[in-house]
Structures are given as structure tokens and as C-alpha cells.
């Protein structure tokens, strides 16, 4: 379990700078499977599942996690896959919260 997955998101009210590419890359080491967008404003991971029901259940679990932490992903899903992406809207870029959520998503039982 990464150190990040033990943390909780802190409210982000804007007015703080987004992480630099270097800072994001350093945190990415703790979030296996996630990649940084070309402009370094979001992180994304693609998950595969054996069927539609498992994809749907996974997206639902990510949603529950997001509601609990009040930090929300963009997601697309369909038969056998889900794509989850995090960015912090208020700062139009990355915050440690995005990496905390990625680590927590990686800890879900179906996130293989
Ligand atoms: C009040 C509430 O905490 C905020 O509006 C949260 C909700 N979820 C959020 N999710 C994401 N990804 N970015 C945000 O800036 C954000 N803000």
C-alpha cells in the first residue's frame, strides 16, 4: 500500500498552484498504472474487466470513494473497461488530492 493511499483529500479552494510536471512525476511513482497527460494537467488509468457488470460495479465504487473524499473523477466505461481520470478543477491542474484518489482507486478490489 502506498503512503498516498493512507491520506485523505484536503479541501482545495483554489489560490494554490498546480503541481509542476516534476512534482507530478515524483508522485506518479506511488500510483502504479497511472499516466500523466501531455500537458501535465491530469492523470489517467485504463482498467480492464471480464464483463459489463464488473465495469459498472467498479465505476460505482470509484464514485462512492469520490463522494466520501469530495474529489471527483471523469470516467468513461463500457463492456470490459473503465477509464478514470483525475484533475483538480479549481486550479485547472494537478493537486496531491488527485494522486491520493488514484492510490485509493488502485486499492479497490477489482483494480487489477
Ligand atoms: C465543494 C467541493 O468540495 C468542491 O467543489 C470539490 C468537489 N470535487 C472536486 N473534484 C475535482 N476533481 N476537483 C475539484 O476542484 C473539486 N472540487
From TrEMBL:
Gene3D superfamilies in UniProt: Transcriptional coactivator/pterin dehydratase
Record's signal peptide: none
Keyword presence, Protein biosynthesis: no
Lineage: superkingdom: Bacteria
Catalytic reactions on record: (4aS,6R)-4a-hydroxy-L-erythro-5,6,7,8-tetrahydrobiopterin = (6R)-L-erythro-6,7-dihydrobiopterin + H2O
Membrane-spanning residues: none
EC identifiers of the protein: 4.2.1.96
UniProtKB keywords: Lyase
Keyword Ligase in record: no
Name of the top EC class for this enzyme: lyase
Stored CDD domains: PCD_DCoH_subfamily_a
Family designation: Belongs to the pterin-4-alpha-carbinolamine dehydratase family.
HAMAP family, A to Z: Pterin_4_alpha
Name by which UniProt lists this protein: Putative pterin-4-alpha-carbinolamine dehydratase
Organism in which the protein naturally occurs: Acetobacter fallax
